[in-house]
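Write out this protein's structure.
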Amino acid sequence: MKTASMILDRDFAIGRIDRRIYGSFIEHLGRAVYGGIYEPGHPAADGNGFRRDVIAMVRRLSVPVVRYPGGNFVSGFHWEDSVGPRAERPRRLDLAWATTETNEVGLHEFVDWARQADTDVMYAVNLGTRGADAARNVVEYANHPSGSFFSDLRVQNGAKEPFNIKLWCLGNEMDGPWQICGKTAFEYGRLANETAKVMKLVDPSIEVVACGSSSREMPGYGAWEYQMLDECYDNIDYVSLHRYYGNRDHNTPAFLARSVEMELFIREVASICDAVGAKKRSPKKLGLSFDEWNVWYHSNAQDQEIVKADKWNRALPLLEDIYNFEDALLVGSMLLTLLRNADRVKIACLAQLVNVIAPIMTRNGGGVWAQTIYWPLMQASRYGRGTSLRPVTQSPTYDCADLEGVPLLDAAATLDDDGSVTLFAVNRDLAEDIALTVDLRAFGTLRVVEHSVLHHDDVKAVNTEAAPDTVAPAAGDPGVMENGRLTVRMPSLSWNVIRLAKG
């Protein structure tokens, strides 16, 4: 058995944890909406066609915010198509995903669903085929009380009270050549600046997110952020980051190390934000919105065949990754990375929520179940509150193809306002358990409330409708607390949550 040690102290504070880092994403893509959250005629559907069994699963995750309606979809979307009587809404070709959008679920319906799911809406505006005028109009429609054209149109369409959407995305991945009407950094920066200005003139209480590079591998990465921010720094609040990982080579150690690269990505973008702020002599410090992140690679080949066979059909079963146990471990480490950067990352959205690269899967007409990645997100969202603490850790390390010194023990910790401490940790070792000693003397007398472990002997194990609990949390070693030090065993290849309370 390997050994590791950790010191935690209330003075090792990184920053307050913004609940919105546990957000998610629903795009008009695949079966995320139609066949996911919305399926009229399903035995579990409510009067509006929303599946109550799916809502229950979402509520269990405690998702604070859901990004909507895209994604690549939004760059060709007319928001006006999604309001008014359903029978009069147009059917549109979705050029992003080669399907037909029926607009059966629109802005009003999604806001109603979000309220049932106990979450807020993060709304994206189209800065591909459209611009500032459409953006300020949808803010007026959603948030202005009444007495103007678009706010009165909302009332006429059945919503007397404003939706009060407070978080807005200024387009999506605008540097991507795949994006409908993509932009150069200068073009996008100017457009984002003017769009943010007019949106905030309509509602000064909103916050806006500008598009960073679509990934760290983009040719213009870094230069895009700098030039874009040089144009819009003063009028935006957050910069977006997007990151997906895969394990096509079936190299589990290298795959589980990907979160190290994610941490570098966050620090690099934060540095560029600060460089632009320094150039402008601005006291403002931009936050980061990691509003797309996940594992995504399982479905790539099948998606090409589906589009080839059924192009322009409704709700094609696209991006339906079936997640295995090792995917859950990496998702856990990605959550730890977000927590360790809580001073800068204020929003994050696991992409996506239902069916499309998602923690929740459904069968049309059938059941709903939690994928393996559901569990780390649920536990982090429930227990990762208060202040993020920086653990001082001594751990064995390993090297992989492009990274050296990867710690076998990946960890983050939180101090809640009631004095409770939660330790989150991933043991990346394929074969050996880790005996971890944690120095907790700075917190007075603590007791272990729970040690939850997610582990399976087969890294490729998956959950299915027939066997939904194949990979699920179980009780772990409660450990031994002596003189303010906890010694606990963490199984090989495991996600661990240790909750400690006062007394």
